[in-house]
UniProtKB/TrEMBL annotation:
This is Acetylornithine deacetylase. InterPro entries: AcOrn-deacetyl, Bact_exopeptidase_dim_dom, Peptidase_M20, Peptidase_M20_dimer, Peptidase_M20A. It is found in: Cytoplasm. CDD domains: M20_ArgE. Its EC number is 3.5.1.16. The gene is argE. The keyword Ion transport does not apply. Residues 83-192 form the Peptidase M20 dimerisation domain. Belongs to the peptidase M20A family. ArgE subfamily. GO terms for biological process: L-arginine biosynthetic process.
Length: 288
């Protein structure tokens, strides 16, 4: 928890992801006075970025701040990022009737219903991956991961309850609401046919996919200042909510995502001055 300088690195939790960005943004802003600014300059901090993203959600709901452009300082090794996938984590539960396994007619097996539902989910994944592709991503298709399953309590008892948790990573252009409706359309008939109670709900609200056009003014400015073409990443950010506020949004900050959440998290000191220089370049272009 204490910032330590060693081997030309800043070590400490959050140095890379993403508290290290704030002192660098403040250092960049210190080069200018209020009299210099023709457009406002805002340094914005939000809560719960690693979990619910409720801070960014609250801002979007409140309709503030009012701004034209936003740079999110997630660790991208100072390479601009203009798109990322979304994240959905979902819960599916079937409830049937327990009974002695010697007579299947005594119960309604929730585990067998889940087995059928798993087949429907995997079939949907195949359909989505055939329909959607984005070559900007290393994994070019949307993914669906079957994460964990729990059901039953004894080999000789008909399983009365089974619960599945899974995640989806939709590409830009895919609607989370439409995906959930597609799942319901395939799963609800399984529950009805097998006379099972069903619950299907998100484990959290999810993060929508994000994309800023390649020809956006902010994207072109960051590409010019960094010398890197804007690209796509697999991790999600608060960008969709800042976009919702009408801001042209881009993700770019010092450090590598590979160092994030590590016990020896660090930020290379060689990234400090370039970060300040790039941010000052953006301030000159958009605020002076």
């Amino acid at each position: 928890f204490t910032l330590t300088e060693r081997d030309n690195r800043w070590y400490g939790l959050g140095t890379c992801d993403m508290k290290g960005f704030f002192p660098l943004a403040i250092e960049a802003a210190k080069a200018f006075t209020a009299a210099d600014l023709k457009q406002p300059l805002i340094i914005l901090a939000t809560a719960d970025e690693e979990t619910s993203m409720n801070g960014a959600r609250a801002l979007a709901e409140a309709g503030k701040p009012n701004a034209r452009y936003a740079v999110i300082g997630e660790p991208t090794s100072l390479k601009p990022v203009r798109m990322h996938k979304g994240i959905m984590m979902e819960r599916l539960m079937f409830e049937g009737q327990s009974g002695h396994s010697s007579d299947p007619g005594l119960g309604r097996n929730a585990l067998e219903g889940m087995h059928e539902a798993l087949g429907e989910l995997l079939a949907l994944r195949t359909d989505w991956q055939a329909q959607y592709r984005n070559t900007n991503f290393d994994v070019q298709v949307p993914t669906l991961n079957l994460g964990c399953i729990h059901g039953g309590d004894n080999p000789n008892r008909i399983c009365a309850r089974c619960e599945l948790h899974f995640d989806l990573r939709p590409l830009p252009g895919m609607s989370m609401d439409s995906l959930r409706q597609a799942i319901l359309h395939r799963i609800a008939p399984v529950a009805e046919r097998r006379e099972l109670l069903m619950a299907f709900e998100p484990l959290f609200d999810g993060v929508p996919p994000f994309e800023t056009p390649a020809d956006a003014e902010l994207v072109k400015a960051c590409e010019q200042l960094t010398g890197h073409t804007a690209h796509a990443v697999a991790f999600a950010t608060e960008a969709p909510w800042l976009q919702k506020l009408g801001m042209e949004t881009l993700v770019m900050g010092p450090g590598s995502i590979d160092q994030a959440h590590q016990p020896d998290e660090y930020l290379e000191m060689s990234q400090l001055e370039p970060t300040v220089s790039i941010l000052r370049g953006l301030i000159r272009k958009f605020c002076l």
